[in-house]
Amino acid sequence: PDGRLFAGGDFLTAFPYSAGNFAVWDGVTWFPLGQKTDGLGLNGPVWALAAAPDGSFYAGGDFTLAGRWATNLARLRNNAWENVGWIDGWTYALAVAANGDLYVGGSFSRAGSVAANNAARWNGTFFSPLGSGISHGDVNALAVDADGRVYTGGSFDRAGGMDARGIAMWDGQSWIPLSAPSD
Predict the structure, then answer these.
(1) Is residue 160 very low, low, confident or very high in pLDDT (cuts 50, 70, 90)?
(2) 3-class secondary structure for the chain?
(3) What is the pTM of this model?
(4) Are 84 and 114 in contact (CB under 8 A)?
(5) What order of strands is seen across the sheet that includes strand 119-122?
(6) Whole-angstrom Cα Rg for the chain
(7) Of 32, 39, 112, 176, which one has the fewest beta carbons inside 10 Å?
């Protein structure tokens, strides 16, 4: 909303600054953010970014530090990184619902202390799985519509135990495959 562009990836500089895989473009120059109090950026690649309604910003990827301990998922709030829990594998996709819930997709089996197959929801306090999740592949994309339905895309074959062939929707209670049936 303020016109800044947030960028994540696998880079150490955003000229002329050290950036630690995360930088911000203010319309004139790149600069590091989240390092003023932490002293560090993220120590591994950032593969997903999402803005939250409260002005905070989420990053997911393959890292163990975001200024402090944060395993594959962190939140930037007030220019400092925070750990929001841990993901036991890689985070490839993030989406924030209008109510502030964060949806996480990737290649993992646990989100925090909860078993979650490649897809989970974080409500600001704890994680919950999306049913039996996504299997036989990874979640590479997420989107949440105005009604709170979560759309997933990726290299997976099954969602909620049903054939899904790379695209499915979570309606809050169950998975609905959105692909054509297999031949």
Answers:
(1) very high
(2) CCCCEEEECCCCEECCEECCCEEEECCCCEECCCCCCCCCCECCCEEEEEECCCCCEEEEECCCEECCECCCEEEEECCEEEECCCECCEEEEEEECCCCCEEEEEECCEECCEECCCEEEECCCCEEECCCCEECCCEEEEEECCCCCEEEEECCCEECCEECCCEEEECCCCEEECCCCCC
(3) 0.91
(4) no
(5) 90-96, 102-107, 119-122, 127-129
(6) 16
(7) 39
Q: Are 79 and 33 in contact (CB under 8 A)?
A: yes
Residue 1: predicted pLDDT? 63
Q: How far is CA 153 from CA 59, 79, 116, 136, in A?
A: 19, 31, 17, 13
The per-residue pLDDT for range 35-73, each reduced to its tens digit, is 544 455 789 999 999 999 988 889 999 999 887 889 999
User: How far is 183 from 177, CA to CA, in rounded Å?
Assistant: 15
Could you tell me how far CA 67 lies from the centroid of its own chain? 18
Distance CA 8, CA 180 (A): 34
Is the alpha carbon torsion for 141, 172, 159, 91 positive or negative?
positive
Residues in the chain: 183
Residue 181 has pLDDT above 80, yes or no: no
Q: Residue 95 is encoded by which pair of tokens?
A: 């989406």
